[in-house]
Amino acid sequence: MKTLRSFVGGRWVEGREPFATLVNPATEEPLARTSSAGIDFGAAVEFGRSQGGPALRELTFAQRGALLGSWSKALHAKRDELIALSMENGGNTRGDAKFDIDGAIATLAHYAELGGQLGSLRALRDGDAVQLGRTARYAGLHLWVARDGVAVHINAFNFPAWGTCEKAACALLAGMPILSKPATSTALAAWRAAEIGAGLLPGGAFQFICGSPGDLLDQLGPQDVVAFTGSSQTAGRLREQLARRGARLNVEADSLNAAVLGPDVQTGSATWDLFVQDVVRDMTQKTGQKCTAIRRVFVGGDQLASAQEALVERLGQVRVGDPARPEVTMGPVSTADQLRDVRAGIAKLASESQPVFGGDGSVKALAPEGKGYFVSPVLLLSRDPAGARVMHKDEVFGPVATLAASRSAADLVRRGGGGLVCSVYSDDRDFLRQCVLAIAPYHGRIYIGSEKVAGQTMGPGTVLPQLLHGGPGHAGGGEELGGLRGLQLYSQRVALQGDRALLDSIAPAPEQQKS
Question: What pLDDT is stored for residue 455 in this prediction?
Answer without folding.
Answer: 86
